[in-house]
Fold each of these.
Amino acid sequence: MKKDLLTEYDLELQDFTEIFQRAAFLKKLLYQKVSYTPLEGKSLGMIFDKSSTRTRISFEVGMFQLGGLAIYLNSRDIQAGRGESIADSARVMSRYLNGLMIRTSRHQDVEEYARHASIPVINGLTDYLHPCQILSDLFTIREKFGAHEGIRVAYLGDGNNVANSWLNVAARLPIHLTMACPAGYDPDQALLERARREAQGGVHLYRDPADAVLGAQVLYTDTWASMGWEAEKEERARVFAPYQVNEKLLAQAEPGALVMHCLPAYRDQEISSGVLDGPQSVIYDQAENRLHVQKAILEMLLKA
């Protein structure tokens, strides 16, 4: 039966467990330089409507390491960019490929691909959610703390797709999530309300970042102006200035708290260079883990 990865909320607890266990196994094999190619003869189409560093490289290299083929499809270069319907594109691609990964703006487009495709569809990023990123973040937390259960995460800054994904995860897993966002820049209200209802560890939204980081074991931030919001960059820099993850804010968190950022980072804006490069930063480990977690996702969805 076809299975997609469109949102973290749709994952069952055993799915999280399987992804994390397989990611750890695949990472170990890679470090031991052991060849493992369960996706030999399989192909992944990768549709990009947005520029990418980590998503493209990790999926492309991941498919190669698993023995498969990844095909880069710029949305401007395929017929969908000239008006072919998503339904027709999905049906045709399903005849050629074993899976689709899509990085685009509209979450509805990914959902429509999944409705009409007979192959698994993976949400590589939309303006609404970023599930592959957040699964990699959770895997990194498990590596550093030994488990994710009960961990206190503080998200600081824009209520964007990554913030929404943290809300979905908080509704499914026993973590404690605090958020600090300026008024007018909150995450999706429906996701926030659902997470508040269903979260085992609790979800709280603050205006003062000092309130959000109190007792936090992980401080997490993202760029203040995601792709598509460049015109608001100067205004956002002014509004978000008090939310910068810097040495002063980090000192108010739990001693030894880890710092995470999904990248790209704009140094000395949402995060100070001293913190980004400091001993409590696990940002580059976090980035590397995109490869291992996405390999686990690919194996899980494409191996059958």
Note: Residues 44 and 70 are 5 Å apart (CA to CA).
Amino acid sequence: MMPYEEHDPPASDPNYLVTVGRTPLQPAVRLPQGWFHTIKGPVFDQIKVGPRDHDLTVHGVAEPIGSRIIVFGRVTDSDGKPVRNHLIEIWHANAAGGYIDSLDITGFPLDPNFIGAGRTLTDNDGNYRFITIRPGAYPAIYVPGTDAWRAAHIHFSIFGPSFESRLVTQMYFEGDPLLRQDKMILAIPDPRGQDRLIAKFCAETSISESFGPPRVRPTLDGSGTLIQPPKRQDPGALRHYNPSAQAFRFDIVLRGSRATPFESKP
């Protein structure tokens, strides 16, 4: 079987110029023992993980635009043992494919109710869970003069027992047709490694609810006439939001022959 290291994409890929610009040209420098990076972690005394940090849909004055999703899974070691109390951070584009980032050159619209980042801790069984909005795809510059779509994806960062232990990877969505042209995931040489980055839809964990809160503003009909929303007395009439969400399972294995491919390993 192919060693798990060969499932990782190259740090510098000439097919995707962003990776070339951010890859160091010189060998890594090993700092002497006793530096701050050997402090045991995670340490959250200054910025603690809040009870709603895992929910990216609750930080605005209204709901963000887009399809609500649940991303969940389990983090394990090579022997299947749970990885407990590890910090997981995620960040991704909004439903239109735009990032809250001054370097975002797409010009896609931003959502004032979506910050695009969240974090949580794994529990005693290594489980984690996020609630967010399904990210949109966006075109990316690969080799000069070549633009192609990046498949919808979520960035993951996993901190280990010390601050020198951090792994960064990306999660994709099952059935996305853009996976066939996304050069980031295609940079992984083995299809088995590519498959480990694709989250699978989970019907059992998904939430399906037809009744949500009533409309509060009139809408236009086909003739341009404003129609007032009807009075409702159904189960959703008193709700503040519709909790429906498609769920996707993304398990992460840190080491061994079944390891999840990572794009950076400090």
Note: The radius of gyration is 21 Å.
